[in-house]
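Researcher: Here's the sequence for the chain we discussed earlier.
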Amino acid sequence: MTGRREVYATSITIPPTEQMAFPYGDVKAWLGIGCNGKDEWAYIGFSDSPNLTNTDTKDGYNTLSARIKWNDSVENVPLSQEWGSAFLHFGDYDQAIQKISGATSALLELKWYGQNNTYFDFPMVGSAAAIADMRKQCSAIQ
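Model: Thanks. This is the structure I predict for it:
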C-alpha cells in the first residue's frame, strides 16, 4: 500500500539440531538479508518469537550476545530483538552479510528459556549467489 519495495535473500527454513521441549517443539529458523535500494540488513527469523534468557532489556527491545560458528571460526555476535518480535537482528549488518556471503555453514547457539543450549545449523551453499541476485534486484528499486 505504501509502494515501498524490499528484496530478500534467505536460507532454507530449518529446525534446531535437537527438538526443543513444549511449547517450542515446532520452532524453525532461517537466516536472511534484506535491502530496500538504500540499506541492507541481516537477521535470523523464527516461526515463533524466541524466548531467550541471556538478554539485556532496553527501551522496547532486548540485546544479547550469541555464539555463531561460520565454517570453522567461532565468534560472539551482538543481536537485538524488538519485544515480541520473531526476528533477531545482527548488530553489525555489514560484517554479518560478509560472513553469510562467504560461509558454507553457520551454526548458531542460543540460550532458549527452559531448554538446553539450542543450536541451528544453517546450510549456506549458494548464499553468495543469492545475495548477488538480491543486490541486483535492489539496485533497480527507485
